[in-house]
User: Fold these one by one.
Assistant:
Number 1:
Amino acid sequence: MSGVQQLDVPEHDAGQRLDRWFKRLFPHVAHGKVEKLLRTGQIRVDGKRAKGNFRLEAGQSVRIPPLPDPEVVKAETSKRDRSRLFDMVIYEDRDLIAIDKPAGLAVQGGTNTHEHIDGMLPDGFRLVHRLDRDTSGVLLIAKSAQAAKWAGRAFQSRTAKKIYWGVTNGVPRPLSGEIAGYMAKGELDNRFGNIHEGKEVMMAVRHGTPKAKHARTLYEVVATAGAKAAFVAMMPLTGRTHQLRLHMQILGAPLAGDPKYMTDRQLPGGLDKCLHLHARSLTIPRDGQPDLSVTAPMPKHMKSAFELFGFSESEEQVDWDELL
């Protein structure tokens, strides 16, 4: 634990927010901890309390309270992250583990993303594929570079079989089949009063559009609740960003709770306000061994939706070969 420090603000740091300035100097201190230090007056500017958005001036003196050693924080964080990761494990062998990723937890880091699966992995472990932050379900992790290579080939060669379950706002038409087309990055518009206007999304585009990629999805409506909602099983034949989310929107029934791919139809009452998309199962071939097949249990928000609409997990008996 360090002692109390008094740091002067240099000329080149003038105008910076206090919380961001502090975090840049002491990145091992968690954001929540910084807020608490500010709230309790342990971080002060020229002897006075200050809020996180206070703009610093050159020459001001900032009181830095006693802080834990960075190496101790790193070790404690690593231990906590690994414990949390292994609480998610639903399958393990000498080469691979499969976890049931909860909705809301990112797979990899990015802007303003400090907690993610990749950051929890022990040394040498590697992600084999990805899931959106808001998608729950099966995520495969390799324990070595060699395991990542052979498992990754199943995704690259498209021999990995991924089944997703979703609850849609409305009923897709037609009720089953294949949806295919080109997609590329675009921006949200404000047709449905979406507060995320301007954020990047995927859009259906014509063949030949710059950076467009072809996407294919097999799907079947397993059950419906009138015209309000449907239980849909999906098998992506390609692995494009937001592929299933865009394809359900194109079919006229976007996934319930999706903040980016929407409709002007009101969301049925009683649903949790989160994305209703779950990576239900994953099957990959193994040389000289039976296929590896892993199934993730339904998350709480999906179970609630099934109960609300009277859907049953046992109803899903899709003949995917027939849809091909």
Number 2:
Amino acid sequence: MLYSQLSACLQAHAPRSKRFILALSGGLDSRVLLHLMGRFIRQYPHYQCLAVHVHHGLSANADAWVQHCRQWAQEEGIECHIESVTLTLGNRISVEQQARDLRYLALARHVQPDDVLLTAQHADDQLETFLLALKRGSGPAGLASMPVHTAFAAGYHLRPLLHASRQEIMGYGTEHQLSWVEDESNQDQRYDRNFLRHQITPRLLERWPGMRKAVVRSAALCGEQEALLRELLAAQLANALHSDHSLIIGELASERIGKQLIRQWLSRFDVRLPSQAQLQQIWHSVVMAQDDANPQLCWHNHQIRRYKQRLYIVNQWPDISDCYQSCEIDQVYSLPQGLGTISLRHSAQGNLRLPRDGEAVSVRFEPEGLEVKPQGRVGKRKLKKLFQEYGIPSWNRRRTPLLFYGEQLAAVAGLFVVEEFAGQDCDLDWQYDVS
């Protein structure tokens, strides 16, 4: 029964895919999925399957789990790859959430175009996810919980066991005499999901045995409603999106429509959605702020900022204003925080002169107090004012590379050359994908 459900699901949702990436924790659910996939690829040998085990290092048994996963995958004729990740304990993100985020990042590295990631969540997991969303006061998007099929990385994410119960999966594992690992953290009821699993859902299902299926059905209906909303607002979102991926405030219409457009905009760029209270704050404190204000709202690792009547998604980067990179001519240097590469290179049609003897070349990011005259301009101006004139948002002004000859600013990457350093000997080449 379970195998026929899986086979039908794979062929219905992955008709173009020939390769599956199986997330293998080694627990009961993924162990059963591994066994099912072994049967599937033996029946349909034109399909491929790769198992990926993510080693979090949180358990004393983690190394042993690696060996078990390798052995079980080998028994099924499936290659197994191990990904090791390191959690930063003690930060503001819960261990549970951080482990999940790092796990999916590791899995995404293996998903090529049209590949399908397989995970082993089932109907009981869906019930727990629904209840957690209910506890948070989520709307239809949150109550939709986990979809059966969705886009993921360069391919797709499929949960082929989502309509099966934990009891059915346990029955399959027992029937086929499978062994699996038991993660001791699953007994720790300090975690909300474990508390629900051990204390709440058994009593709910005892009282209402059909609740598991009812929740799966309700989650699917919420998902359909959310998909319909996206479809109805697609044209408005397209009109509101600027070419630099910012959101044009003047296209947001009413508060009700505008907040939905903001949510869909954030979803498009894989940003974790803000809570209802945070979304309310974005609307009233950022969108509706005075024109001369510099409003922002921070949550998780992102900020929403406003500049020139547009909203921007900004990563919360650490300050790099004290960063110093010495440079040699015709050498390429990597800049911090994904800011690309930079080089000062010889060019017969350049706009910079060569540095003179004793002028050490460096790249810095601290614009405070600098006053210069750009080539072709009249008079000196403070760099802060020049950034404003060139339309550089405030959060990027300490992330724009500044080229120094000695202790003098010679050029601002992508903007201008300082008058006294103009020439035709070389160019400052900053390669940075702003999208």
Number 3:
Amino acid sequence: MKDITTREDIEILVNKFYDKVIKDDLIGFFFTDIAKIDLSKHLPKMYNFWESILLGNPVYEGNPMRVHFPINEVSALEERHFNRWLQIWEETIHENFEGENTETAIARALNIARIMNHKMANARGN
């Protein structure tokens, strides 16, 4: 297996991840029922997000934290949800890639999940 080194690699990873996550029994409903994401619009944002993080190309514009607060108000985003998100992310990565950027993708996702979990809990007053 190869490392994540191109935009195409990121698109493969993100596509395979979303194929799994939207069908997941624990967290899929956040994507399909609550956020009702349009994959044709959402996936390019995710490609840009991860390309910015992993390849250092500043192509992402937005505030990922801000868009999650309204979801959290409808249905609490809890630690178990972030843990499942991470589990699917790591599983998808390890099925397709290995190397330095691959490990960075896992480490950065862990940090993102921790920060998001903390901020969502604070927003709920927990």
